[in-house]
Amino acid sequence: MNSALKEKLLSLPTSSGVYLMKDTSGTIIYVGKAKNLKRRVNSYFIGNDKPIKTVNLVSNIADLEYIVTASDTDAFLLENNLIKKYQPHFNILLKDGKNYPYIKINLKDDFPRLEITRKIKKDGAKYFGPYFNGISPAEILKIVARAFSLRTCTLKITESSKPTRPCLNYSMGLCSAPCAKYITKGDYRKQVEEVINFLKGETKNVEQILKQKMEIASESQNYEKAIEIREEIKSLNNLKQRYTTQFPTLFNQDVIGFHSTGTKAVFTVMIIRSGKLMGVENFALQDIQEYELITSTFLMQYYENRIIPKKIVLPNEIVDREELQEYLSQKSDEKLEIIVAQKGKNKKLCDIAEINGSEYLEKSIGIIKTREMKTLGAINRLKDILNLDGPPYRIECYDISHISGTNSVASMVVFLNGDVAKKHYRKFNIKTVEGNDDFASMKEVLTRRISKLKDSKDESFSSAPNLIVLDGGKGQLSSVQEIFDELKIQIPLCSLAKQDEEVFVTGKSDPIRLKRSDVALQVLQRIRDEAHRFAITFHRSKRKKAMVTSLLDEVNGIGKVKKQLLYEKFGTIENIKNATKKELMLVKGVTENQAIEILNVLNKSKS
């Protein structure tokens, strides 16, 4: 421990607040909260009987900062915001994994429709899910269309809209055609209420409706339709079977389990909706940590983009249960109850969750170790190979993409703790360079990026990299080092030459040659390839948009304003190409002749 750190430990206040621990490069490696800053922070450096995670953390601490807060609750909230901003290596960081689908219905619309989404928004809509364990929301939407004839189109239909000709779904019995005024708002609402009951788990009524429709189709010798409905009834039965457990009452709650082996740990979440066990999610932690202190951090990250139930059941008490309950209640706009299972049904459910986590950990231990070797193991090996002051917890890689100097763009790809961090990816349009000059383009990008380090509110730009990886050989490395010397930037650099996958570092004339199986080389290859992919994707998107925009210029009367309205209405160029004439005419100012010409011009360009 250095003398400056010792002095800071002695001068810490006894009030509540948040502390930020840094390594030798100034990177924030841990963020914590405390009701008593002095007692909590000093506890890391006192005593020998500590978890491996804490020992590793302390060995990497070179400096610390702290922020005094007015209350324990303020410290709780600030800690969460800083963890999201800096994503420190030693904090719990749930990987940006798959977001399970939900079914959304916006009851503010006069004639609501169901849609599948993976993002929860505070927009007043109702969300049902998540759907996993083989439950397909697309199949659910088919069943709803057959049983209740809710519309599936994206047209904006209000009670005062002018009637239009119904689409094919109406003639197939899959839509009640509110667009044609074939159903009133009141009658449609009754159907919506039935749909909501179905999504909450009441399936008997739907099953009866489908069987009746199948019989009618069969009696009228419409056997093709009868077979379709029969398949939908099968899907409904599969849906019922996928609900693995039925409880006597219709309640919504998540049950949390925690299991530790002493060196590994796992959180398990059992999701119960409308008295049905929808499924189980397991989250393995990198190292053993203290359940009482980390559970709130885990749950705050877990519910970042998930529906928060009315009740969360914990296996044991945590230090900040009240603050967590208040935070999640505000986030969900509904009063939430967090209870600690003592006995009875909830205790049994927590025990089941823990057993599930234990089995998951036992089966996955090999996979987890392999993943850790390719991520955390890789950055620790890079530290040694590149002679860095500490592990490169944040690695950035840049790539330039253009065709003969036109539509030049750049990508910034970020790996945190040796793995992709897509939330931190950023794109650059090259502004000051004309023609094919990758060196000048890279200089512009790096200058713009580094200038944002101190005062940017962007969580990615404000985070300093521990290592920047370049695509190329010794020449590319020297060029960028010149830029860094000119800008007085002291960030470690290395480059990876594609032909022989040799690693070059500043100050060494000879490359570092690593085996193809070396995890350090593999992580450099992954970030290099990812930066290249991201840059090319951005460049293609920009080029395609420019091409179609120029094509729209050929349409008489379609100027800048109408182009913008078309993009706002349809979202993508592909959607404009695939729109119908009537849908295009819904855009303000687009005439029938212009709609026809837009389709002719764009679809001609496809061929």
Topology:
Layout: H1 3-11, E1 17-22, E2 28-34, H2 37-43, H3 52-60, E3 63-68, H4 72-86, E4 102-105, E5 114-117, E6 126-128, H5 137-148, H6 168-171, H7 185-199, H8 204-219, H9 223-242, E7 253-260, E8 265-273, E9 276-285, H10 291-302, E10 311-314, H11 321-332, E11 337-340, H12 344-374, H13 376-385, E12 394-403, E13 406-416, E14 419-420, E15 426-429, H14 438-451, E16 467-471, H15 474-487, E17 493-497, E18 502-505, H16 519-552, H17 560-570, H18 573-578, H19 581-585, H20 592-606
Parallel strand pairs: 7-10, 10-11, 12-16, 16-17
Antiparallel strand pairs: 1-2, 1-3, 4-5, 4-6, 7-8, 8-9, 12-13, 13-14, 13-15, 17-18
Helix pairs in contact: 5-8, 5-9, 8-9, 12-13, 13-16, 14-15
Distinctive features:
globular, 607 residues, alpha+beta, seven-stranded mixed beta sheet, 45% helix
Beta-strand content: 15-25%
What is the distance, rounded to the nearest whole angstrom, between the alpha carbons of the first and last residues?
Answer: 69 Å
Gyration radius, to the nearest Å? 29 Å
Could you estimate the helical fraction of the residues in percent? Answer: 40-55%
Number of strands: 18
Largest β-sheet summary:
7 strands, mixed
Nearest-integer average pLDDT: 85
Spans where pLDDT lies below 50 across 5 or more residues: none
What shape does the CA trace take?
globular
Return the structural class: alpha+beta
Tally of contiguous helical segments: 20
